[in-house]
Amino acid sequence: MAVSLPLVALGYNKKKGVIITTLTGLVEPIGALLGLVAVSLFYPILPVVMGFAAGAMLFVISEEIIPKTQSKGKARYATFAVIGVCCHDAPGQYGKLKKVWIIGLN
């Protein structure tokens, strides 16, 4: 409905809207299969890649979100929030990664 209603509102007839909506939905299982294959192939290095993804998110936060909060006079709160999140999540994430590596090596 999220695809077909705007199409009908733009002037497409209902039948064509349903056909286009069905075709857009048929792509999703293909993407799911590609994702499954990618995860299966890269399973041994998945924890390292996820670490890089987490680092990229921290970079985005530190480059975009924190400066915006500092411009509004809340620099100290933003800095402590980032430090708190890193300190809070780091031990649990290390334990999860350690388990994944041990399972992967068996």
Written description of the protein model:
This protein starts with a helix and ends with a helix. It has 106 residues and is mainly alpha-helical. The chain has helices at residues 4-9, 14-41, 46-71, 75-105. The model has no long low-confidence stretch (mean pLDDT 78). It folds into two domains: 4-39; 43-105.
Write a concise keyword list for the protein shown above.
106 residues; mainly alpha; 2 domains; 86% helix
Give the class from helix and strand content and strand pairing: mainly alpha
Basic shape: flat
Number of strands: 0
| Mean pLDDT across residues | 78
Distance between the termini: 47 Å
Spans with pLDDT under 50 lasting ≥5 residues? none
| Major sheet summary line | none
Q: What is the N-to-C order of secondary-structure elements (H for helix, E for strand)?
A: HHHH
Strand proportion? under 5%
Q: How many discrete domains?
A: 2
Number of helical stretches of at least 4 residues: 4
Helix content: over 70%
Rg over CA atoms, rounded to whole Å, is 22 Å
Write the layout of secondary structure elements.
Elements: H1 4-9, H2 14-41, H3 46-71, H4 75-105
Brief rundown of the structure:
It is built from 4 helices and no strands.
